[in-house]
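Residues and backbone
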Amino acid sequence: MTRPLVVAVAVIAAAAAAGGCSKTKGSSGAGSAGAGSSAASGSASGSASASGSASASASASASASASASASGSASGSASGSASGTGTGAGSASSAVPRPGKAEIKATNKRPGTRVIQKLAAKVALGVRAHDSGKPLGGTRWVSAISGRKKKGEPFTTWLVLLDEVDGQWKLLGSTEVASQKRDDSGQCPARLPVSIFTSDYDWDGKPEVLIRYRTCSIEPAVGESDNTYMLIYNAHGALREALPHAELQASAGSGGTRVKTSYVDVNKDGFPDVRIETTSQGTWADAKGNNTSVLVYFYDPKADRYALAKKKRNKRKRDK
């Protein structure tokens, strides 16, 4: 399994002068099975008075992964993106501020290999591989594990939610993500490459788990075929799927695709949606010559999940 990326540290820079402005920036990690990143940034402007060499920081209504205080008032807008940029309305962000690094930071040490294997046995899963785990704030952690229940069965990837209470680790919940059976040719790996990340992706003030994994199969006509998928789970309580299996990237033989995933407030409701733009790198194009498609998943704050909104194609010239 691939080693997960490290969640970037939010950086706050503030400077004030008479009639000046203050900006806050923050970033959060997301990635692909192997590589990937995401960033979220928010900006705010306000007025503050100072004399001599004075510094101040402003509290923005749309702060992203950061907070600051100031003698003046501020309002602004926030944007979140993964390999892209976007804008979002600041009103909802002020009502439900995004958690900063301190709120997702663990107050205990990550669970060790023996702890994970012991707890995985409770769901009758023999662990062959697992990641190092990601914090959810406080004493809670989430880990992706891979194994199989019986010999000959396909390897299955699970998410397990762990908590340490009075020095003892407990399994709070688990959910099956995907499984893959080794093909007869032996060219594909038996286990799924997986990466997981934690952040507040929907700006509801609670942490979520983002997971990406890649499948592999051998097609007689084209050879190896790979597909990359992304899911988001709510982790405040039991693990609950918020974003269904969204296909990010596919390749078959010598062909392939380029994907751009961004968190942008498409419908201007103050919460970031998931926008996936896929461009064919081969000679493929539809009847109108388009080789780029866009999927948008709108976030519903009441349901606390995403739903596929629309699909459209942008006109591109056919590859020559």
Remarks:
- The helical segments are 90-95, 101-104, 113-120.
- Residues 113-120 form the longest helix (8 residues).
